[in-house]
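Reviewers of the previous submission asked for a worked example of the structure-prediction workflow described in the proposal, so we include one complete record here. The input consisted solely of the amino acid sequence. No template or homolog information was supplied to the procedure at any stage.
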Amino acid sequence: MRDVAAPELIRNLTTPDRADGSAGLGAGGVASPYRARSAPAPELEPVLFRFAWAGRTSTYDQQDPTLSLPRQLRSCGQVLPEDAVVVAHFYDVESGRKDLDTRGRSTAHEMFSIPIARDGGIHDLLAEAERPDRRFDYVICESIERIARRTYIGTDIENRLERAGVRLLAADEPFNLAPTGGRKAKVATQLLTRRVKQGIAEFYVIEMLEKSWDGFAVHTEQGFNIGKPCYGHRARQVAHPVPAKRAKGQKKTFLEPDPAQAPVVRRIFAWRLGERAGYQVIADRLNDDLAANPPPTPVDPERAVGRWTASNVRDVLTNPKHTGHMVWNRHARKSGSNRANPVSEWIWSPQPVHEALVDLESFIAAQEISGHRFGSRSSAGPNTAHPDTKRSYLLRTYLFCELCGRRMFGKTRRSHAYYVCAPRKDYTPDGHPTGGAFFVREDQLVDGLNDFLSQHVFGAYRRALLDTTAAAMDADARRDHEERVAALRRAIGDTDQRIKRTIRSLELVDDPDPDLLRDINERRAELRAHRQDLETQLDAAEARIHAAPNPDLIDALPVTRVEVDQLPEHLARDLFEALRLEIHYNKLANQARCRITLSGTTVAAARKAADRTVSATHPAPADPDPPGEPDNADSVPILVVPPAGFEPATPALGERCSIP
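From that input alone, the workflow returned the following structure tokens.
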């Protein structure tokens, strides 16, 4: 291979004269008539083969581009003929498994002093190859996997170069640049070699990724943490189980509660579950006292903002490690640009492996609140994020369309507030009215809501208004559930005794044979599997008892008349959140159904919000300790006040909404 600066032409393909001076003579020195009639062959100018070099290293932390890239260039130069010159150098420091449209965007090469002038990356190479004034006619790489680790991407790049008239070569493949006399060059062996190497390269990468993935899964199941400890926990280091790594000082880590951060996590979940507070509302409360609520520090400390943000709160509430389980693979960090993976793809440790900051049931309940609040802010007042906003809507977040399930949004027409459901055309269910005909006035909904709260929730006869199936719990069904739980507990205890007797039977034999040992081990495994099944059934039975309706919860609320439109908006929204209010409006029936839900974890917040409501509307203070309040709120099951329907006034609810 010649240097790029060599000016001379280095190939002469003219036919030399014979040594006896009889050039062009036939046999016996007689001039051939054919040669005589043929025109003398023109002298061909020497040919110079112009090459572009393509290189790549996968990572900047596991490889050294300052060594790998020069080595690749030297390997290519060693197989090029003398009449070849490399005129351009294209290389990247990135994974070869990326899609082609995401390739060439890495700036990792700027972190190193690579002794090769860079003309661009893979996209720059393809762009120049398709230009008529390109500097090269061939592209060479050390091996085909340097172009791409995925066969599809590699062949796509190869085809694009071929369509542009540029031939892709690899230093470890056979190739021939000599003229073929007008015949098509033979590339079958080269193509076979290339496709075999591409298949092996892709197989190797996928196999290594699968084994690595399985290793991370086992690592997680054993309770070891991966990455930076989540907020609320700190790392508890243990010696590495591999002696060679242990000798180098490497360690593995478990998680343990952080004394300063763990109370903050519990506080965040309490606000979310008790008040259904939004991310930003919680962040604002935490920022009021940063000494008691230290903000999280990102992996790169220079990016720390020194305060809580809504995304920080979301990260805390959505991290399942707070339940005591170790969890991995929540995000596709390498293959999916950090997108969230489905919960079904998460890897959980079978049992809790570190101290839990919240129980699993509370964590799941917090995720359900996220689904309810999605797309709706929790703060009162107009939306300051939109400068054109002139008013707020009292029932936003809580009003849903019964026909399609979507949350309805507010609009103002001639100084009156309305709620509208106008899904996109492609997402509109059959029979759903169009947006122009789907209006309901806020004051009509508020009148019906006031009656519902004053009679069914805070009224003196609210117990009598409860549905009979919710007002009186079925004693026979509850007794059956309790008997089922007791029977399962007895069966678990009996199984434990049988496991112990199986072990003792081995102690009675002085010299057990292999068959006996195998039978005992199989029996013990069967008993353990049976015990696990019984525990699963017990958990389900206890959950059914815990979820049984308890009408007594409603007695914890005061008796009063409620006019939500007379309350400050923030107090009204606090009351709605505490009661878990939902309003479902059916346009076709012109009926709105109101529903509230009380539970042992929310009844205290509901009572507190109700007391503030009473204080705001009546001068007399509310009774701080009503006789009907349960003693142990944490163990009280859930009460759902059955939906009560009402029909808003109809003058403005015709086929076309007419505003009076």
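The radius of gyration is 38 Å. We consider this example representative of the routine output the project will generate in years two and three.
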